[in-house]
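User: Show me a protein chain along with its predicted structure.
Assistant: Here is one chain, sequence first, then structure tokens.
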Amino acid sequence: MLNRVQHDGVQWMLKPWGLCVSLYSRRGSCGIMGIMSLKYNIIEGFVRFWNKVSRDGVKRRIYEHLEKPPVVQEIPSYLYKKFNVSKIELGNDLLFVIGPRKNPCDKAVLYIAGGGGRAKPGKRHFKLVSRLVKQGGLTVYLGFYPCAPDVNVRFSLRWLQKVYAEMLKDFPSKKTVFAGDSAGANLALSLCNRVVSKPAKVIAVSPAIGFAHGEVRKPLEAAEKSDPLISMKTLDLILDSWCKNVSLDSPDVEPVNINYEGYPPVQLFYGTKDMFFPHMDALIANIEAGGAKLEMHRKNAIHNWPILQETREGRRAVKQMVDFIERQVIR
């Protein structure tokens, strides 16, 4: 019996024209949202236009950003002004605990920002975290985890295990959630595999999957053409540094290869214009095979679309995350 739940619906009403459109995926139970907001379409359109006139200028800038990431050692000042913030040193890296000033709820989120395992959190991550705290009354643990080229993924996971140990001093595991985007989604899923006391839920936004070479890699090479953000060159940079001395088939690297038996409910966000989309079916099938409850939100969108908080889709994704966290789990 499948534990899959599809929100966002499979039926959309275009009110101005009174047109009702039903969209179904090839899987039969996951609605493809082909109608995106004007703001989202402007953003995607600009990115694609810039790639076209500048010979993949956006993809090149993302590669350069990850090749030589900026030094980030602080969160924006507005987070200090709006929320209660604690800054903790764990080894050589920083952990920020961000919570509401009034009426905090009894749940905490370990948010793991993406960045290819090479870059620290950026402004869009901070906006998303701010909304999680404000809308959900959540306490968010935002770790500036150690990154490549200084360390590999396993070192990062061990550091995140220490963060989770800090969380458990103040919150029982049943009140905690792991969440992350892109490479951070991989870490959230892999971290849950490592810890004995599982969190109540896991949220994975656009996980990066299908790393192994050979036949597994070919769908990524084909899908790269439709992805305006990520290039195979960028992916190789990440794999050669963050995954150094670690098998690409390891569950520490590849979420598809995790055994999801005993996992808490998983909320998965992904887009059909993402280079990693071709392998998403394999991830979904494996999560379901392990018996974990799965809630999916699929959009006709690019990689990591939920962190675009300037769009309607991004803001709604945060609401869906908060609703997912607040919903009581029936075991």
